[in-house]
Amino acid sequence: MARRLTFFILIAMLLGIVVGFVLNRSISDPAALVTITDTLSILTEIFLRLIKMIIAPLVFATLVAGVAHMGDTAALGRIGGRTIGWFILASLVSLTLGLVVVNILKPGVGLNLPLPPASAASGVSTAAFSLHDFFLHIVPSSIVDAMAKNDILPIVVFALFFGVGLTAIGEAGAPIVRGVEALSAVMLKVTGYVMRAAPIAVFAAAASAVASQGLGILATFGYFMAGFYAAILLLLALLYGVSRLIIGPSTNRLFGYLREPFLLALSTASSESAFPRTLEALERFGVPERVAGFVLPLGYSFNLDGTMLYCTFATMFIAQAYGIEIGFSQQIIMLLVLMVTSKGVAGVPRASLVVIASTLSFFHIPEAGLLLILAVDHFLDMGRSATSVIGNAVAASIVAKWEGVLQPGPIEALDPVPAA
Q1: Which residues contact 123 (CB under 8 A, 6 or more apart)?
Q2: Top-confidence residue, 296 or 340
Q3: Which of 2, 141, 273, 285 could form a disulfide with 417 if both were Cys (CB 3.0 to 4.6 A apart)?
């Protein structure tokens, strides 16, 4: 089932690119093209909404059950500390890698773009970022409101308190624990139903993007995009290498299980769409539910490795395009600023653009430079999302290994996912 679905998703993506190219070349009326792309995007939006309706109850159920099964708050604190420590290290590595690659390849050097007027704006609001708002945002004023907005971080906080409370009351909470375990099982079953529509959504997303932008946009920003994806490949290789070093040869099996969620995130440009399948892949690999259900939701707020890399890469590209020299010391400051600001936009749509816009103004780089990358942001978001899926799965597996609870099976052919 897993291999068949992965194959269908890949075929749908390629077919969508071909159909999108044909539409872009054959329809000269911009209004008609917009109508077609808007119609196609309905299919993708419906699929993403179906996925999002699963995430809040799934995160809540898996995290509550996981905390309840840990048995004591000492284990929770130890796993939490190791998880946050890994996230900080992974973020620093991702940000640094983006800086190193962009300084080596220099994709913006030579463009010599004239500086835009000081009043020019990018159209991306930076008001969404505030450390004050972020810390207040962590604690939900209403769990119902957080679930309605699919706001993962407040849901995680509430679920942690709820799980600790269940542990404290002992046997009296056993029926609730069984209830949340049943809820998790139901949500995963629903995921199986929803995933049957994934190839249709992937086809629509690819066709809509190529039809509206055309393949020509890829040629215009080819060097910039090639440099970014080279950095992404380096990051993926690094994640694989570290995983192989810590977990061992069974890393091959882990990455095999992650093919489907990786491809799904790549084709839909949404890491959220891959969350349920990533959770299933981790459990199949041998990561206990209590660890996967704890680390994965936190990772979606704190450990988006692909986004981290993109923030430094894109910011430096814009500075290079305008001929603005950013010295080594300033780049170190930029890395530290991005380390903080990137954690303050959990739940913000197109979060990386918000972070980059904030960083541009901090270093007096024209904010309008963000318009340079907006045209290809969707194609770059595909790589960011897919890489973040791998980064979070590796994080959960490594934390489970450190806890001594990882139980990967033998290296073998991938066993099929049970049919929904």
Answers
A1: 370, 371, 374
A2: 296
A3: 2
